[in-house]
Amino acid sequence: MTTTESTxxxxxxxxxxxxxxxxxxxxxxxxxxxxxxxxxxxxxxTVLTLADRMREILDRRIPRVPALRGFTVVNLFYxxxxxxxxxxxxxxKVLGADVISVNSSTSSIQKxxxxxxxxxxxxxxxxxxIVIRHAMAGAPYLAAEHTDASxxxxxxxxxxHPTQALLDLYTMRRHVGDLSGKKVVMVGDxxxxxxxxxxxxxxxxxxxxxxxxxPPTLLPLGLRAQDRPGHAxxxxxxxxxETNIDVALEGADVVIALRLQSERQExxxxxxxxxxxxxxxxxxxxxxxxxxxxxxxxxGPKNEGIEIAGDVASGDRSIIEEQVTNGVAVxxxxxxxxxxxxxxxxxxxxxxx
Length: 353
Ligand code: MLT
Description:
- By secondary structure, the protein is α/β, with parallel strands linked by helices.
- The chain has 2 domains: 26-160 and 325-345, Rossmann fold, CATH 3.40.50.1370; 162-322, 3-Layer(aba) Sandwich (Rossmann fold), CATH 3.40.50.
- Helix content is 35%, strand content 14%.
- The strands form 3 sheets. It has a 5-stranded parallel β-sheet. It has a 4-stranded parallel β-sheet with strand order 4-3-5-6, sandwiched between helices.
- Helix 1 crosses helix 11 (320-339) and helix 1 crosses helix 12 (344-352).
- The longest helix has 20 residues, at 320-339.
- The protein is globular, with a radius of gyration of 20 Å.
- The model is unreliable at 1-20 (pLDDT under 50).
- D-malate binds at residues 155, 161, 164, 194-195, 259, 299.
- D-malate (MLT) binds next to helix 6.
């Protein structure tokens, strides 16, 4: 689903007579970032490896480098956001880019300007990257068809939130290393969560075992490949679906609590918030079933007392604040990659030495 431009590649296969030749695996092959469903493990690792370098810059006493001087990023947010918007803004500024945030409630969007017109207007001002958050699934894809600026999806409806998934993967990797075979449990409103969808693609690419858990009305039943013969393209990657939170949490390496996306839910999906919290809140009592050294994550904003108990959100297994810091590093890495000012194959080669 992405438009391809730069194709820095590192051959990862060797040719032996009589064997089929595999194409070299690309280290980064995207001009836009719309979702992780078409990102390979190697591409994701390129971002995560570069994010390590960015995290080092971010931790300096004066976190500023001129790597993206002369590069312009526009934040175009049609939906509320605190952390994602601030994170992109900071990511660009740390690297010396010019970052402009357009507020949809005070811009010409209020006068009826279409997304396509707004994106074209931004590009006419020589914008290099446009970060879009929109209530409509697919809006960033539409934008990408009408501009040669790099489009970054910062959340489109219930569809995707790829930079949240990248920062989640990066944060997990910093703690547990290789994610292959690790049990990652997502609890909450899976059906309406764009974070869950992008996390699923990313975790599947990294070889994790994913369990999604929630009440049946908030689970994406019917989206499994076996439920959709002939429609594999709209199926989710392989995932276990569980309605009992105690069963789901058994032996978990990572637990991700997700907010009820009430802005996207139709009425009648839950008997009451009280009942939801009683059956699905991530609590200390329930987390004893997870591995003792499990990681507890949440993309934010969190509603303590509903999907997550306050004491575990700020407890010693919680890495929720670290997710926020890592979000800046990951977005720095992504902007740098999309700028074309770094050779992705060198990033990967350096990490392998
Ligand atoms: C999102 O924008 O999807 C957030 O990061 C997660 C949420 O709103 O629950």
